[in-house]
Amino acid sequence: MESFSQHYDSLYAALERYMPGRDMTLIEQAIRYAEDKHKEQKRKDGSPYIIHPLAVAEIVTEMGLDTDAVLGALLHDCIEDTDASYDDIAKQFGDTVAQLVEGVTKLTRANFSSSEEQQMENLRKMFMAMSQDIRVVLIKISDRLHNMRTMQYQSQAKQITKCRETMDIYAPLAHRLGMQKIKWELEDLSLRYLEPEAHNDIMSYLKAREEHDKAFMRAIQEKITGRLLDMGIHNETYGRIKHVYSIYRKMEEQEKTLDELYDIYAFRVVVDTIPDCYNVLGHIHDLFSLVPGRFKDYISTPKPNMYQSLHTTVIGTQGIPFEVQIRTWEMHETAEYGIAAHWKYKQGDGAGSEKDFEWVRRLLESQQNTDAEDYVNSLKIDMFDDEVFVFTPKGKIVSLPAGSTPIDFAYAIHSGVGNAMVGAKVNNRIVNIDTTLSNGDIVEVITSKAGRGPSRDWLNICKSNQARTKIKQWFKKERREENVLHGRTSFEAEMRRLLLPLPAAMDEELQQSLLKKLSFDNWDDMYAAIGYGGLTATKAVGRIRDDINRAAKADKANTIPLKLNPEAAKGSRHSVNGVIVEDIDSCMIKFSKCCTPVPGDAITGFITKGFGVSIHRKDCPNANGRKDPRQAARWVQVRWDTAAEQPFETTLELDCITRDGLLLDVAMAMTSIRARVKELSGKDLPDGHSVFTVRFEVRNVAELESIRNRLLNIRDVMGTRRGQN
Ligand code: MN
Questions:
Q1: Distance between CA 437 and CA 409 in Å, rounded?
Q2: How far apart are CA 319 and CA 644, in angstroms?
Q3: Phi-psi region for residue 55, left (φ > 0), alpha (ψ -120 to 50) or beta?
Q4: CA angle, residues 30, 34, 36, in degrees to nearest 5
Q5: Angle 523-532/465-478 helices, nearest 10 degrees?
Q6: Among 54, 144, 214, 370, which is disulfide-ready with 7 (CB 3.0 to 4.6 Å)?
Q7: How far is CA 75 from the centre of its chain?
Q8: Distance 143 CA to ligand 1 centre (A)
Q9: What topology is assigned to 203-346 in CATH?
Q10: CATH topology of domain 648-722
Q11: How far is the CA of 228 from the centre of ligand 1 (A)?
């Protein structure tokens, strides 16, 4: 069991080494704060929880990060595991620290383990995308490193999950960020649990020959340093055995046993200047035999993760090959700590600013075209702009196009979820379903079996094609009748806009050719397609426009009655806009402006030239024309569809005695009975009278009558009249 004081002292020593002269007040305060918050918790090995944040802070300190990052590390589990809040931390330690802790918390809540390769790519992308501040990533990597170091206390199942995650996410990220040392440690620790036998084999093999290796490396080291001292080149040279995982991988890749594997030694010569590097290289090649084709100059051409060194492989005494890496101190820092080293050099000028993040982005971008075996291809620069990564309440990551809404999220989960959606929560708060989602949001869809299904508006709100397609599918399947109606309305409106006669007015032959042009078997199918959004009315009409115009021109006698739509005539009559036209189906209906009929009124229909059937009240003066024998054929019988429940516009004229405030009284009266007023205007007559015109919607004559009575009750309203325009 590890003790608090052990880790406390160790952290202080590190702070002393890496941040001499730092103000320790806040750090001390954060330690006390975390210790207090975590006081009820224990690590798996039984030691107090606080040793974990202390250890993570120590790793962060060794990376050379700043005070805010150290504070963030100390507090990194507070929001997730204790009652500490963002505001509380912000108040005591500042906004930056609170943001760092929150960032780490988001990553902690994310479930980064997944066996699907596809998901893997998303995970790594999202990890970066979520971490607005690179320090968040660095703290999280430190957190993982300490957890990996203490992995022996976890259950076997947990070991395997965590180690896979480490290999899939954390080690690649450490590599990408140039943090070689941490990457190696993460890989070795993972291998220990993922391939315990292989790990043991390698370890015991190395153990068995430890004395031999040490002697060998000492001899080489002395030979090198001896020469360099003679030449007056200040240097630090040491040998090491390559890390376990890289030996393991070499065995796998080259299908070799441990005995067959050479090239497990690496020597490092660290010098003061770049000229020294090349100078040393010459001496190495002079001392030992060079293995051809193994020299690499990463000084003139740095690796994408900023790594710089000269690499060469030579053969020493006993015929054993070994690699020599030659670098300056600065290159060494960069190789060990990667991006964190960069951090260290530019400290003091607003660390953690947007500029730093830009720098990371460029770094990641520059890695795109390197190292085919690497995953870096998956990390595109536009990932930050094009995608947004959010969580399900269970921590599964969902990747959506930037700007996505809860609707997109719901359909990304399952079309059933989307179709049953009645609302959404983001980060536990109810939001509008058109809310734009941000990276790291936890999104919960509220569903109801009684839900009415998607609304057509959703098609305009959603961002992802997936959601749009699924919504369209739903409309296609669930709402055929509604689609047909909706589609026909749009289609007819478009026809009217272009002053085209209805296709139903065409003879059968033309009809067939039009349908063929539209690639539909019948009109209803086409209307349905428009209705669910598979085809726009503009497009549909556009396709047949020329044909209709041509036919209309050819047909000089444009006054013939509408022909039947043979398809529809077989079935029961359909009402259009609430009116059934005897003998004719699928025809356009319009209500005459002159008498504004409403359901209940006795009506008649007149076949217009190319605009369908116009409906008049029977008592409308314009309807007298039906008595004209020359036009008799164009007057048809029509009736109200009693099942239709749609509103009709009508007009009432009020005869009134002029007085102040009367218009207001009329408006109030209409409002009080919730009448849907479209227009209200008044006109004074010379004799102290005035006429008010009210245009409004009603469903039927009964409703119209009740509105009329209400208006007649207003003082100074003397009479009403149905509108005559
Ligand atoms: Mn932790």
A1: 9
A2: 97
A3: alpha
A4: 115
A5: 140
A6: 54
A7: 29
A8: 5
A9: Beta Polymerase; domain 2 (3.30.460)
A10: Alpha-Beta Plaits (3.30.70)
A11: 45
CB 104 within 8 A of CB 141: no
How far does CA 616 lie from the centroid of its chain? 54
**Average pLDDT score over residue span 550-565:** 51
Q: ∠ CA 51-57-63 to the nearest 5 degrees?
A: 140
Distances (CA, A) of 499 to 91, 517, 549, 552, 693: 68, 20, 10, 11, 30
If we measure between CA atoms, which residue out of 29, 83, 23, 31 comes closest to residue 58? 31
Average pLDDT score, the chain: 80
Give strand ranges (E) for 337-384: none
In the predicted model, is pLDDT for residue 381 greater than 60? no
Q: Report the DSSP beta bridge partners of residue 493.
A: none
Read off the pLDDT of residues 23-79 as tens digits, 9 standing for 90 and up. 889 999 999 999 999 998 998 888 899 999 999 999 999 887 888 999 999 999 999
CA of 212 to the centre of ligand 1 (A): 40
For 139, residues 6+ apart whose C-beta sits below 8 A from its C-beta are 56, 60, 69, 72, 73, 76, 100, 104
pTM, two decimals, is: 0.52
Tokens of 120: 């893997």
Q: Are strands 387-391 and 321-328 parallel, antiparallel or unpaired?
A: unpaired
**From the CA of 52, how far away is ligand 1's center (Å)?**
7
Question: Which residues are identified as catalytic?
Answer: 80-81
Fold of 358-477: Ubiquitin-like (UB roll) (3.10.20)
CB 264 within 8 A of CB 242: yes
Q: Identify the burial level of 591 via C-beta atoms within 10 angstroms of its C-beta, where 0-12 means exposed, 13-18 middle and 19 or more buried.
A: buried
Kindly give the distance from the C-alpha atom of residue 104 to the centroid of ligand 1, in angstroms, as a whole number. Answer: 9
Torsion of CA 69, 75, 76, 81, to 10 degrees: -170
* 460-to-115, 443, 465 alpha-carbon distances in Å: 35, 20, 11
Kindly state the tokens that stand for 212. 């031999």
Architecture, CATH, for domain 4-153 = Orthogonal Bundle (1.10)
Burial class (CB in 10 A: 0-12, 13-18, 19+), 572: exposed
pLDDT of 692-718, one tens digit each? 888 888 888 888 888 888 898 888 888
Domain limits, the chain = 4-153, 203-346, 358-477, 479-555, 559-640, 648-722
Beta strands at 310-315 and 235-241: parallel, antiparallel or unpaired: unpaired
DSSP sequence for 440-469: T-BEEEEE-TT-----TTHHHH---HHHHH
Contact at 8 Å (CB) between 82 and 37?
Answer: yes
125, 119 Cβ separation under 8 angstroms:
no
- 4-153 and 358-477 agree in CATH topology: no
3-class SS of residue 392: coil
Q: What percent of the chain has pLDDT over 90?
A: 24
Distance 35 CA to ligand 1 centre (A): 13
Q: Are 438 and 387 in contact (CB under 8 A)?
A: no
Q: How far is Cα 690 from Cα 279, in angstroms, rounded to an integer?
A: 107
How far is residue 254 CA from its own chain's centroid? 42
Which residue has 């849907």 as its token pair? 676
Q: How far apart are CA 100 and CA 82, in angstroms?
A: 16
Query: How many whole angstroms separate alpha carbon 80 and alpha carbon 132?
Result: 19
- Residue 114 CA to ligand 1 centre (angstroms): 20
